[in-house]
User: Fold this.
Amino acid sequence: MAKRGPTLEDVAREAGVSRATVSRVVNGVRNVDPEIQEVVRRAITRTGYTPNQAARSLVTRRTGAVALVLSAVGEAFAARVFADPFFGRVVDGALGLLRERGVQPVLLVAESAQARSQVVDYLGQGAADGALVVSLDVDDPLPGMLVAAGITTVTFGRPPGDPRAGFVDLDNEAGARLAAGHLLARGRRRLATIAAPDSAPAARQRLDGFREALAAAGVTEVPVVKGRFTAESGRRAMARLLREHPRLDGVFAANDLMAQGACQYLREQGLSVPGDVAVVGFDDSSAAGECRPPLTTVRQPVEEMAAAAARLLVEQLRGTAEQPSSVVFEPELVVRESA
Amino acid sequence: MAKRGPTLEDVAREAGVSRATVSRVVNGVRNVDPEIQEVVRRAITRTGYTPNQAARSLVTRRTGAVALVLSAVGEAFAARVFADPFFGRVVDGALGLLRERGVQPVLLVAESAQARSQVVDYLGQGAADGALVVSLDVDDPLPGMLVAAGITTVTFGRPPGDPRAGFVDLDNEAGARLAAGHLLARGRRRLATIAAPDSAPAARQRLDGFREALAAAGVTEVPVVKGRFTAESGRRAMARLLREHPRLDGVFAANDLMAQGACQYLREQGLSVPGDVAVVGFDDSSAAGECRPPLTTVRQPVEEMAAAAARLLVEQLRGTAEQPSSVVFEPELVVRESA
DNA sequence: CTGAAAGCGCTAACAT
DNA sequence: ATGTTAGCGCTTTCAG
Assistant:
């Protein structure tokens, strides 16, 4: 709690000028005599003045902060979010740009309906100037709610429906095609995939892209088992796949964590990766490098994407009433040892 | 950006009462005629009124939000933080209590000197009522800076030095003693430990406690290799330990992630856990259950501790000028299969 | 129980 | 280039 500190008035008195002048100096507005600037500056440090954000935003209607909202439903949401390198990369990417622009990043977690409306209220009351939301489920109502509340919003991943929000996204289907092409080129034909819940649009697209590419190559039987983006779920999916299709020679997982789990299981079963079964992941996250063997994976430039999203938001905030715009990134195959 | 919405004044006009009355209704202050309350309430929904937080805190000097600050130094901080289940548990625990108390939790990340002062400024300007900081390094200046800035602060883990901040902590030494006792009881004598940087006080304490307990039992030669709290670093530490001390029969790791890495390596080397080498972790995080074999570990009730910290903060905020208080939790051994 | 009125600390016209 | 002044929207005495 900031106890009642010195105000502009105090500084003004101390410096022998008017409030307005001090305000100008504080806000770096030109048209202030350099000497007076000096005097004011000294008075500021002498008094230990800090601008009161509430008073300031009451008149400017801005806070200088933007919210980075992590949204999804489920138990122990934070525990899951904080166990997936993906979110860390998003945060890192967004933070970098925001810091550089002098914007204070504020993380908000919306893990339940209650939390969601708290977040909407909070932002609706003007706690931040805009929101960058990272949402996992297709049917996440949050982006729509925010837009409806008049909050400038940009989403990571194309938003479900068509709220008027800018977004950044990856061409997930193209990425999956890359994976399929690689597996095929390596001579693998008995392919399967570890997908993820359809509620995650990206997962759905990866699955579609993979199937499509294989179909185009004449491979139509493609076993699919769904995981939940975690290594453990990848393990289990792999176990089941192997049980039902012992002759598999290639697997595509919708993210690196599941690919890692799959590799773990395969090796425990005494199978060689990629000798017996080739494995391709998705994301090129830290898990890809840590996996044994290192994963061949589809690179998603998460940090760049997050930075782009943050930039979109900041620019949309600056240029009043501009159209929300968006940008789609192209994936890239990173060949390591697993396939 | 919340565009200029309806104000108290608008609602008052609509309801045919004064601003003051509307304010009383909004804030649930008693002494308002039930009928009038109804009228006002209707007017509120009809106009779609939302209180303006800036105006409100300008007079109340409160925001109804508290910051949860993740602090530490280092590259790609967010990426690391978001890869360790520990933080997720802290966030979950704190969120639970805060939500229940109707306090809006706001996450702040302080990964560099610049970020730290941005955070101090932000909070100093009254963006939140208090801060709960989770700090990793002994020499983290943040808690001190916050206290100096007059911000009510509570830390997770005893704060370095002696800032006037409340805190919650775990008796880490006792936890390490538990681990040592268990290993000893299992007949292991050729023990080693995977520690972590001394800059993390908890790690230091775990190391001290472990050595102490072993010394008391007459085991004085205890090889130590330091990791960095990650599974990968645990792997590497285990590799080195095994190379230098091939006859090891028990290992204590300062957290579960490193223990997990160690188990992984041991199994890859064809050694049995706990047959050849018993492994004990620390935290009882999700990694403990996912590990092969499931980890015997020292339970740290992170969620409870975080909730307690949040409670401390909220209460300190409520009761003006109370002494910052603190609470220390006792660890507990959870026996699974790894030792 | 309700209304009138005085600010909270700051920015932004508008004057000078 | 600097000062004056009018609010921003809300809570909170203080009267009534």
User: Anything to note?
Assistant: The mean pLDDT of chain A is 92.
